[in-house]
Amino acid sequence: MKQLAAAFLMFISVVVPVLAAEPASVTPAQAETWLAATPGVQVLDVRTKEEFATGHLTNATLIPWTDKDFADRAVKELDPRKPVLVYCQGGVRSANAAAALAKHGFTDVRDLAGGMLAWQQARSGAIKPLLDIPYADTPDAAQRLDLYLPATRASDKPLPIIVFIHGGAWLGGNKASGRASVLHFVSSGQYAAASVEYRLSQQARWPAQIEDCKAAIRWIKAHAKEHGLDPEKIGVWGTSAGGHLVAMLGVTGDVKDLEGMLGKHLDQSSRVTCVADYFGPTNLLTMGDFPSKMAHNAADSPESKLIGGALQEHKDKARSASPITYVTSDDAAFFIAHGTADPLVPFNQTETFAAALEKSKVPVYVETIEEGGHGGFEGPKLNARLQTFFDKYLRGVDTTIESGKLKVRE
């Protein structure tokens, strides 16, 4: 049980913001100002002791990134169940430390420099946030989305929109975790973005989660003209459990049984244009066939909790929650990033799903992160490829998308 619990904590939510750029230098004074507006988080300062002496953060834990026992000390001195902001003035070491912590059971690890960038963009007026929109027309706080619009648009044409869906094993996480990942797209003036929250499995069983996501897509389409958006150019992006849900959106645009009856906009389609699936499960029945730190077939696994019973004892329900079940030739284009050493979602999930998409002649670009774990592997090349993917399918840019093997943080 202890091993399962530890694995679950790793699965809950690995959040290392994917940013096109980050501040060249974040001073302690700048960080303190931002942290004053972001209470309730743990701060880990990974600078050297010499750098720490030049200025320090209030109530921060100092563990230099250069320490050989960095991860072991972090596990002892910090609570892996609570959010952690990792700080280093230049941003590079903090991103690497965040990736290292994500591999040691920390549930919500963020690069403070990336978080500051998102915060600064919002406060500067470059981005107009519309928060906590009730997309399902219910009082449920879980059925909300945040919409981000650029203050200055690159053109007068309706904007494509990138919709982020958070991870967390369908048991945790929230829409705030997607903010830093999408805001740099919005600040370019070429995109709008949204981040969606949905009911978790302890509140409602499958297919509640996909019904919520589909209701959010329908709301966006119904309100596209009001906000200057293109309802025919919607890309979805998610990590882990969020990757599973965006994959489901990409392959079930024509599956009426999964639409649900939420919201006022049932006349709208929930079909999306393209999908960025980062290490999401795609075939629940085969997850237990490969080495993993989690007993996926157990009755208390996240997947079993999602469908309401042990996977192998409820195979029809497990199939209904598996994206691979629904692959057809008219599905959305896919961009998939997955680490070959993922200890929670076996890499085979991507291999078999991509093969099914290719067999049905669906455009699919697989980014294989060699020795990559369950997230924490993002780097400049991967980010650039994702940007190119969205530019091609959402903005119509005539470009070539690279795919293939990448190293961690490459």
* Helical amount: 25-40%
- Ends: how far apart? 35 Å
CATH class of the largest domain: Alpha Beta
Along the chain, the helix and strand elements come as HHEHEHEHEHEEEHEHHEHEHHEHEHE
Which outline best applies? globular
**Tally of structural domains:** 2
Can you tell me the CATH topology of the largest domain?
Rossmann fold
Spatial extent as radius of gyration = 20 Å
**Structural class determined from secondary elements:** alpha/beta
- Report low-confidence residues grouped into runs of 5 or more: 1-24
Spatial sequence of strands, sheet with the most strands: 5-6-8-7-9-10-11-12-13
Which architecture name of the largest domain does CATH use?
A: 3-Layer(aba) Sandwich
Number of strands: 13
The CATH superfamily title of the largest domain: Alpha/Beta hydrolase fold, catalytic domain
Biggest sheet descriptor: 9 strands, mixed
**Number of helices, where a helix is a run of at least 4 consecutive DSSP H or I residues:** 14
Percent of residues in β-strands? 15-25%
Q: Determine the mean pLDDT.
A: 86
Task: Kindly describe this structure.
- With 410 residues, this protein is of the alpha/beta class.
- The protein has two domains: 116 residues, Rhodanese-like domain (Oxidized Rhodanese, domain 1, 3-Layer(aba) Sandwich), CATH 3.40.250.10; 283 residues, 3-Layer(aba) Sandwich (Rossmann fold), CATH 3.40.50.
- The protein is built from 14 helices and 13 strands.
- The strands form two sheets. The protein has a nine-stranded mixed sheet, with helices on both faces.
- Strand 7, helix 7 and strand 8 form a beta-alpha-beta unit.
- Helix 8 packs across helix 10.
- The protein is globular, with a radius of gyration of 20 Å.
- The two termini are 35 Å apart.
